Amino acid sequence: MKCNHYHNVKEFYKDTFPIFLKDEVQNILPLGNVVLGNNGGEPDGWRNTKNWFMATITDNLNNILLSAIMTPPFNITMYETDNIANVDAVNFLCDYLISKNISIPGITSENNLAERFAKIYTKKINMDYKIRTNMRIYKLEKVNENIALVGKLRRAKEKDLFFLPYWYDAFYNDCSLINQNFDDAVLAAKRAINKNMFYILEDDGMPVSIASCQREIVTGRCVNMVYTPPYFRKKGYASSCVAQVSQIVLDRNYKYVSLFTDLDNPISNSIYQKIGYKVVCDYNELEFIK
Q1: Where are the alpha helices (DSSP H) in 21-129?
Q2: Alpha-carbon Rg of the chain, whole angstroms?
Q3: CB atoms within 10 A of CB 168
Q4: pLDDT digits over 14-50, tens only?
Q5: Could you tell me which residues come within 8 angstroms of residue 5 by beta carbon, excluding any fewer than 6 positions away?
Q6: How confident is the model at residue 178 (pLDDT cuts 50, 70, 90)?
Q7: What string of DSSP letters covers 171-224?
């Protein structure tokens, strides 16, 4: 076996893009990152490709068995080609990371792979790990026609920055997202508005829910930043917002819409299934601890 450590994102894209694409929805995270990197990335924060760790583990015939990418400060994410489990490849990657003193905070990947990697890696470095978030990936190809569409959807604009960063900040807190602060929330809101794929649901002129679908994969888009303030919850706003945003994506000739959910939140999982979202796979976000 061999570990190929890439320092050029375009080379990594060339080698791994067709492999990640085999399971496009499952590979929302790595695919989105390699596409972003191939398009030049951005100079600030985690989008700066100079800080990325990118690697593949290949067999003696140069077939890629395992692909991994980490965009600090976030976890490493990886994919075993065709979802064929390969303990030797995982072991090889762990040894390489340790030999090069490459520190990783955790792993976010399909749950079986995440668990196997975490067990092997933490044992080698005398650490432990814990589940930070149990997630599930969903895919939608048709919005349920019976969903009640309350409120009026509109695209977010710069004038909405007087409240959107606060909603972003509340979303980060609700989801226990790491490495986020209010400045990050301001920048994220501005970026989302500039991408023209960020929407606000209003009821009688009052903003009540938001959803974004900035992340373009290949044949689909990923809905995220779904947030409704506590006061407006249990009124059907989140369902209506996500359903309408999902339909906008499909109307733009994308084949599907996808999203992540927290399995510890049965309400959101129920909402998305009623809209028409179908389960693809479970994902684990694991944190390494001493």
Answers
A1: 28-38, 87-99, 111-124
A2: 19
A3: 24
A4: 999 999 999 999 999 999 999 989 988 777 778 889 9
A5: 53, 54, 55, 96, 100
A6: low
A7: HHHHHT-SS--HHHHHHHHHHHHHHT-EEEEEETTEEEEEEEEEEE-SSEEEEE
